[in-house]
Specification:
- The chain is of the alpha/beta class.
- Helix content is 27%, strand content 25%.
- The strands form six sheets. The protein has a six-stranded mixed β-sheet with strand order 10-9-8-11-13-12, with helices on both faces. A six-stranded mixed β-sheet has the order 23-22-14-15-16-24, sandwiched between helices.
- It starts with a strand and ends with a helix.
Length: 502
């Protein structure tokens, strides 16, 4: 039997006991240590600091971390192995979980149901009384797959081996099963419905993700998948029906299908749109007569990825930036000194720096600067601005191409819904200022967790997935000959004059 060692986690005030020889990567994720690059030693975001005891310095750490950080006790959790008792400083975070309490019309049925939003980062489940529509309970958890990478493509890469895919599939099924067991305390569970992006759909259902790893990114099997709870290892629920809603094509997943249910897009008389701003920006535009959808590889900038001091919207993140009399004023989630910059703060910061002439329309920092301070110790680098340009250029190009497919322009859109956590927190004025969302502010509506709401609506069987699918055309932006030109054009920031005239 292996010797056990104690790991004290400060300032959490928690102590865990693990076998000697355990990798920190395998035990610190539940306590707030993130592994955005999947533990490949590229991003430095899993740093922890040794306060007592010791962790051997690996060759990778010598290559990645500066000598002064190593001397100060900093190590990479993805590379470190604990062999003796140690006290570590880790940065605690608390991420906001986006639930849903929207009231909607439904046809009552007997029993209870559970709706689950399987997000790339978080899982949210709600227990619903199918006779009254009342939400009887809510549970949330981190997606355990995040230890293999913050973005979906990192997980696709990991899942290209049979062992990797089986591990990701088993992990997510166990995690969702635990949420459901915490919610369901009464007999009579009629159904469980799940929604998520295409990669989450495939990994939960045990479908090969290899087609999503390369052009043309078209899955072989992406329709609705049905199981019994027992088939998923949820023995206590027996033959309860479990449905994972189908995807709409490529990287446009069932979270967007659920979003169409939630916003009523497929019943709209006038042109409306729904956009989920994430690593794979998913969007759909149309009316009750026709819908067109697409996804674009926006990159992780909206979620704080590939930003020098980027992080998710959690404790310590600069989440909003406003203009003060003496400079920029940064709002930090949870208060205190900032640890980093999340997506909404990044968009705000760039918008205000454009107004002040610190950032030019080309994206360059004025005067040849390479960095500008936001709030000690968080700075914005030239490379960070370029990451945002790449992300917003992809979204802008996607919007333009889809509207052209409908013989429409931005001026024809009567309502734009923003889905997900980033869409819930982004400042609409800042999004317009940088050219990300070229729509009048009054037409842009944060729609919350439309994936969860749509999954709840699907419990009542009043939403026809087949009808929506038949209305919807999936557009492959990568195959569009004009995409690259529109992408490059979309990277440019509007000038003050252009913004004021829009």
């Amino acid at each position: 039997m292996s010797d056990l060692v104690r790991i004290e986690l400060r300032p959490l005030g928690r102590t865990i006991t693990v076998p000697a020889g355990t990798r920190l990567r395998d035990c610190l994720f539940p306590f707030g240590v993130e592994f955005p690059c999947g533990g490949n030693g590229r991003c430095r975001r899993c740093r922890v600091r040794v306060l007592e005891g010791s962790l051997d310095v690996t060759g990778d750490e010598e290559r990645i971390l500066p000598a002064n950080e190593l001397e100060a006790g900093w190590r990479l959790a993805c590379r470190s192995i604990v062999r003796t008792p140690v006290a570590l400083e880790i940065a605690q975070w608390e991420a906001a979980i986006l639930g849903d309490d929207t009231v909607f019309q439904f046809t009552p049925r007997e029993g209870q149901g559970i709706a689950v939003d399987i997000g790339t980062t978080t899982l949210v489940a709600q227990l619903v009384d199918l006779a009254t529509g009342e939400v009887r309970g809510v549970r949330s958890a981190l997606n355990p797959q995040a230890i293999f990478g913050a973005d979906v493509m990192s997980r696709v890469e990991y899942a290209l081996t049979v062992e990797g895919r089986q591990r990701l599939t088993a992990g997510i099924r166990v995690a969702v099963g635990k949420l459901i067991s915490k919610l369901h305390a009464e007999p009579g569970l009629a159904e469980v419905t799940l929604a998520g992006n295409s990669v989450m759909h495939h990994l939960f259902c045990g479908i090969d993700v290899e087609p999503l790893s390369h052009y043309p990114f078209q899955p072989v099997e992406d329709g609705e998948q049905r199981f019994t709870a027992a088939e998923l290892g949820w023995a206590a629920l027996g033959n309860t029906r479990v449905r994972f809603l189908g995807c709409l094509g490529g990287f446009v997943g069932s979270d967007i299908l659920a979003g169409i249910f939630a916003t009523g897009l497929s019943r709209a008389d006038e042109l409306c749109g729904l956009i989920d701003l994430g690593t794979n920006g998913e969007m759909v535009f149309g009316t009750r007569e026709r819908l067109v959808c697409a996804s674009t590889a926006a990159g992780p900038a909206f979620e704080g990825g590939r930003i020098s001091m980027g992080m998710r919207a959690a404790t310590g993140a600069i989440a909003a930036v406003t203009a003060g009399s003496n400079g920029l004023v940064c709002e930090v989630l949870g208060g205190g000194q900032p640890r980093g910059l999340c997506g909404s703060g990044l968009v705000d910061a760039v918008a205000h720096l454009l107004d002040r002439g610190v950032i030019l329309t080309s994206g360059r920092l004025a005067g040849g600067l390479k960095t500008t301070l936001l709030a000690e110790p968080v700075s914005l680098l030239q490379a960070d601005i370029r990451e945002l340009q790449l992300a917003k250029g992809a979204i802008a190009a996607g919007i333009q191409i889809l509207l052209e497919r409908l013989d429409a322009t931005v001026a024809d859109v009567k309502q734009l819904y923003l889905a997900g956590a980033f869409g819930n927190y982004i400042n609409r004025s800042s999004a317009r200022r940088i050219g990300l969302l070229p729509f009048p502010e009054e037409l842009i509506q944060s729609a919350g967790n439309t994936s969860l709401l749509g999954a709840k609506m699907a419990l009542f069987e009043t939403c026809d997935s087949g009808e929506v699918t038949s209305l919807t055309e999936h557009v492959s932006l990568a195959a569009d000959p004009e995409f690259q030109d529109k992408y490059v054009e979309g990277m440019r920031f509007p000038s003050c004059e252009e913004f004021s005239d829009s």
